[in-house]
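Sequence only, no structure available. Ideas?
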Amino acid sequence: MKRRSFITLLGGAAAWPLVVRAQQGERMRRIGIFTALSADDPEWQTRLAAFHQGLHGLGWNVSRNIRIDYSQGPGDGEQLRRRAAELVALAPDVILATGTPIMTPLQQATRAIPIVFTVIPDPVGVGYVDSLARPGGNATGFMTFEPGLGVKWLELLKELKPTVTRVGVLRDPAITAGIGLWSAVHAVAASFAVELTPVNVRDAAEIERGVTAFARGSNDGLIVTGSALATTHRNLIIQLAARHKLWGDLGGYALPARSRSIP
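Reply:
I predicted one. Tokens follow.
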């Protein structure tokens, strides 16, 4: 599957002149959207509005020439596998997927339907694509972070609070991005005179326990690595940072980009 196959439908319909489509007639296309974000999540609503605006600008309109089927909301491994199979059974022309927990069951469900992914920190490392230049297979999309960015997060944290000496790195150990970002930060921690502590989390309960167990004093800091889990529970993370007066760099999600010590 070549990248241009996806671009025709979602990202680059401008390459398919509207006059050609008019000559071929308006055939209803079908897009599947698979995400762990809930329908009422403000971040999801912002992303969806931008997505619809982009489609409209390229000549695609819901009910006229496209239909969109949604499968959204958090779930465990078995629930996501079932939902992936149900979405694939609808035989969409293309599927838009957000987040690593979504992509794994989706690629297990189909190797034929084109998949465009977003919010994937390390698509090569996790095996979704062969390479960034030549994805291969049936998936392509946009990577969110690369490991070296973790170093910038630590640098920013030290600029905000030079006296920070202990930094917790909140990560999802089930995804390669958490491992890669941890390794990058760990490699330079000594040069910033900080002690790193991994805070491994897999659900909201572990986030609360892990952050609470880590927080001890006024010179503690928190870095949140890229994951769908952190995005889903970003409000909880902010509340915990406020409760424990943590200085933090929260990774660029829909959170304060420069989180100060919250009173």
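The longest strand covers residues 29-35.
Hope that gets you unstuck.
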